[in-house]
Specification:
The structure holds 2 protein chains of 2 kinds. Chain A is α+β, with helices and mostly antiparallel strands. Chain A is built from 2 helices and 7 strands. Helices cover about 20% and strands about 35% of the residues of chain A. Chain B is mostly helical. Classes of the chains: A alpha+beta, B mainly alpha. The interface between A and B is medium-sized, with 22 and 25 residues.
Chain lengths: ~110, ~150
């Protein structure tokens, strides 16, 4: 069996990354401030690392760092159909994100 | 017509402070209706230029959620209304004289503008508003203080 590459985490104030041993980005998420609110943007996991809990690891860290603030995110599956991926929605809901009046936009109230 | 009203506003600058305040209150009260017109566009699924919001349909997952939990349960077109927090955040920001700008303070506006230009009303509707709502109010004001 091929050995899984060891991954490392790089968490900065506004950038969360999981890196492969050679420095290639395996997963990433950004935090941006728009109109005074913090938005989680561009959360993605490289295809070869999907379904291994990496996205959950990153989001857990985001919530640990910013869970006392109002957070927004826009759910957009890779196929470009907002909310088409119910599993993606459930994933975010498991972190406390709820729907807003904006289709595809979720928010998480401060803890 | 708006140019004539602006000229009138200049004349009003020469009036007493109390009368000027009353004029500004008259204008801002009437201008509040602009917010209702703007929200009416969104309720019907249109942007500020009168063109349909894009995309103008909900995904099946969101439509099901809105139909179940939304205050406004219509799902035939996108109206950006679930809890109403976004549209409740619309404000008229005075820009001086007779000029006002519609702004949205809700942070979701940062994303929602991808649906189109959401804030503002069409020139034709503004003319209707001025002619049928604002002008009669101002005429009454002029008759009261300036004739």
């Amino acid at each position: 069996m091929e050995e899984e590459p060891r991954l490392s985490a790089l968490f900065k104030r506004d950038l969360y990354q999981i890196l492969e041993p050679d420095g290639e980005v395996a997963a990433e998420a950004n935090l941006e401030v728009r109109m005074g609110a913090r938005w989680l943007t561009n959360l993605w996991v490289k295809h070869t690392h999907q379904r291994k809990g990496i996205g959950r690891q990153m989001l857990t860290q985001v919530v640990a760092d910013f869970g006392n603030e109002l957070l927004f995110l826009h759910v957009l599956a890779y196929d470009g159909r907002p909310m088409a991926d119910d599993k993606l929605l459930l994933f975010y809901q498991s972190f406390g994100f709820i729907q807003t009046e904006a289709p595809g936009v979720l928010k998480r109230l401060p803890a | 017509m708006i140019a004539a009203l602006e000229a009138l506003a200049t004349r009003i600058d020469g009036l007493s402070e109390a009368v000027r305040r009353e004029f500004q209150r008259l204008v801002s009260d009437a201008a509040g209706l602009l917010l209702d017109i703007n929200k009416g566009y969104l309720a019907a699924g249109y942007a500020s230029d009168g063109k349909p919001l894009q995309p103008n349909t909900y995904s099946p997952a969101y439509a099901a959620y809105k139909a179940k939990y939304g205050k406004n349960k219509q799902v035939a077109h996108v109206d950006l209304k679930l809890t109403e927090a976004f549209q409740d955040s619309f404000l008229l920001e005075p820009k001086g004289g007779l000029e006002y700008e519609i702004v949205a303070t809700d942070a979701k506006y940062a994303f929602l503008s991808t649906y189109g230009d959401l804030l503002g009303i069409r020139e034709a509707d503004l003319d209707d508003f001025v002619g049928s709502i604002l002008r009669p109010e101002i005429d009454a004001f002029v008759a009261r203080y300036m004739d």
